[in-house]
């Protein structure tokens, strides 16, 4: 999985007053968990743009004055009106410890059902996976080439040896639905097939 670097500085004071001062200075208060004692730090809001405002999944290298930590974003608090980032929690990665995170689903291939007028519906745009840090995928590839009209793709068809998918086996990832136009055409064709041929003697 691709990684981005966030440069920040450790925070000595972590109370409400200090946190407010950090935000007033245009920075985001953060906490890194998973490595024993939590590490409190802050970084400028622009540092998080390529992490937060993207559909892609990333791991993070947190650089605090030369001291670096590998991590993943665990939780983010955003202001309900302004969308300003208020706080971010990170979780430290360990090479020998599995981590759970969501990664995007990437659709590939061409569905015969779609070519015939069906509508592709992506039920799951992101899937939760559990893996060692080195095996975390950038995305999960969903090949819709075998999908005919009315077919569903279940999470079981996306199983990999490198990671576990943390979803029930009956989870539908994508489906090719019959469009109204295709359904109407099928109904008209059925009526035409049943209708008696004019001029034919009984």
Topology, element by element:
Layout: E1 3-10, H1 16-24, E2 27-33, E3 39-44, H2 49-52, E4 59-64, E5 67-78, E6 85-92, E7 99-108, H3 112-115, E8 119-122, E9 126-131, E10 140-143, E11 152-154, E12 164-165, E13 172-177, H4 180-194
Parallel strand pairs: 1-4, 2-6, 7-10
Antiparallel strand pairs: 1-3, 2-3, 4-5, 5-6, 7-9, 8-13, 9-12, 11-13
- Overall form: elongated
Task: Report low-confidence residues grouped into runs of 5 or more.
Answer: none
Instruction: Assign the structural class, choosing from mainly alpha, mainly beta, alpha/beta, alpha+beta, or little secondary structure.
Output: alpha+beta
The helix/strand series, from N terminus to C terminus, equals EHEEHEEEEHEEEEEEH
CATH superfamily of the largest domain: Ribosomal Protein L25, Chain P
> What's the total helix number?
4
- CATH arch. level architecture of the largest domain: Beta Barrel
Q: What is the CATH topology assignment of the largest domain? A: Ribosomal Protein L25, Chain P
Radius of gyration: 25 Å
Please give the domain count. Answer: 2
Q: What is the level 1 CATH name of the largest domain?
A: Mainly Beta
Written description of the protein model:
With 202 residues, this protein is of the alpha+beta class. The protein folds into two domains: 3-93, Ribosomal Protein L25, Chain P; 100-185, RNA Polymerase Alpha Subunit, Chain A, domain 2, CATH 2.170.120. It has helices spanning 16-24, 49-52, 112-115, 180-194, and strands at 3-10, 27-33, 39-44, 59-64, 67-78, 85-92, 99-108, 119-122, 126-131, 140-143, 152-154, 164-165, 172-177. InterPro entries: Rbsml_bL25/Gln-tRNA_synth_N (IPR020056), Ribosomal_bL25/Gln-tRNA_synth (IPR011035), Ribosomal_bL25_b-dom (IPR020057), Ribosomal_bL25_C (IPR037121), Ribosomal_bL25_long (IPR001021), Ribosomal_L25_dom (IPR029751), Ribosomal_uL5_bac-type (IPR020930). One of its GO terms (molecular function) is 5S rRNA binding.
């Amino acid at each position: 999985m691709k990684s981005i670097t966030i440069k920040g500085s450790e925070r000595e004071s972590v109370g409400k007053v200090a946190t407010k001062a950090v935000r007033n200075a245009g920075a985001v208060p953060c906490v890194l968990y998973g490595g024993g004692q939590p590490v409190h730090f802050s970084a400028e809001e622009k540092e998080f743009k390529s992490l937060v405002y993207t559909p892609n999944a990333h791991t993070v290298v947190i650089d605090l004055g030369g001291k670096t930590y590998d991590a993943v974003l665990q939780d983010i608090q955003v202001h309900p009106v302004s969308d300003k980032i208020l706080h971010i929690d990170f979780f430290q990665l360990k090479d020998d410890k599995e981590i759970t995170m969501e990664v995007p689903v990437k659709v590939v291939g061409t569905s015969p059902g779609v070519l015939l007028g069906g509508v592709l519906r992506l039920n799951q745009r992101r899937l939760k996976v559990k893996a060692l840090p080195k095996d975390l995928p950038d995305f999960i590839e969903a090949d819709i080439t075998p999908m005919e009209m009315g077919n569903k793709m279940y999470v079981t068809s996306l199983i990999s040896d490198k990671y576990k998918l943390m979803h029930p086996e009956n989870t539908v990832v994508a489906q090719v639905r019959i469009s109204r136009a295709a359904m109407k055409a099928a109904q008209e064709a059925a009526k035409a097939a049943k209708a008696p041929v004019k001029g034919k003697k009984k």
